[in-house]
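Example record

One chain of 368 residues, shown exactly as stored in the release files.
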Amino acid sequence: MNFLEKVATLDRIPERYRDMSVNEKRERIAAIKQQLGKRLFIPGHHYQRDEVIEFADTTGDSLQLAQLSKANRDAEYIVFCGVHFMAETADMLTTDKQRVILPDLKAGCSMADMADINQTEHAWTELQKLFGDTILPLTYVNSTAAIKAFCGRNGGATVTSSNAKAMVRWAFSQKERLLFLPDQHLGRNTAYDLGIKLEEMAVWDPISRELICEGPMEETKVILWKGHCSVHEKFTVVQIEGLRKTSPQTTIIVHPECTFDVVQAADLNGSTHFIIETIRQAEPGTSWAVGTEMNLVNRLAQQFPDKEVFSLNSTMCPCLTMNRIDLDHLLWSLEEIVEGRPHFQITVDKQTTEAGNLALKRMLDRPS
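Predicted structure tokens for this chain:
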């Protein structure tokens, strides 16, 4: 049964959790954490709700949390508060004796789902016809285990928003061209920063199954998969222009998953870690408009009250899938563990794990 089939057969969370007070849920979670001790590890992604982050043993981005899960050999249960592809990566990196659990199987990622393995295999065949054996695949870690494995089997690697430039440089040391999955914006912004012209980039549309070129096809260096983050695409140049007029002293910092024009119009752009550390180190009294997920922006505003921190998009909502995990689902997962019937375990088969880990290893072996 695949992921979507599992989701389709899910029972709804028991009503008893809806009837509990917030304090009772918090007390129960705290008690279970104390009861399980080192047998339990709860990593929480930066974009999770505050009520979930409160109980996380560590916070970070997706790959960082997977690596921390790998390093924790004491934990029998890793309750991953993030989304499906993150839990997959954690399962790939941990031992067979450890169980990775996602509190809500509906916590997926629309970007990761924009590149499935069948689409990718077809695209690869067609691109080989056009360009021959001149392409190396790279995939953002925000992708499914199957896509990571595809890159591993074809000599490619994974990338993060922090090391994308280093990995693109490495890719060009291996082949003449690269296929960048699944986020076209991170790929375009990274390649442009490295001196690749927009007309040297093409977009593969997996729906129409065609290559869309800015310039002559034979001059294409970077093939971008037509995928995107639904959150980061909601930031616009119009918002930046408006802020320049009303608050010219504000520094605008955005994530490279934003569109090319937004990244070019902003003052700074970088990974989630870069955004956090830049604001942490900023002078008191400075003003920051942030183009990334709303839960993180609100948390930064709370953590650094000596600075003005707000979302570049005043009507932005939290990421819907990241926001699915709440106290109810976290408590339900923990109580099922205590009862000896852990549910929503994420498992990646051995063959996919081996190929996917090869793609991860090629990245981790490169200097960032």
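Notes: The radius of gyration is 21 Å.
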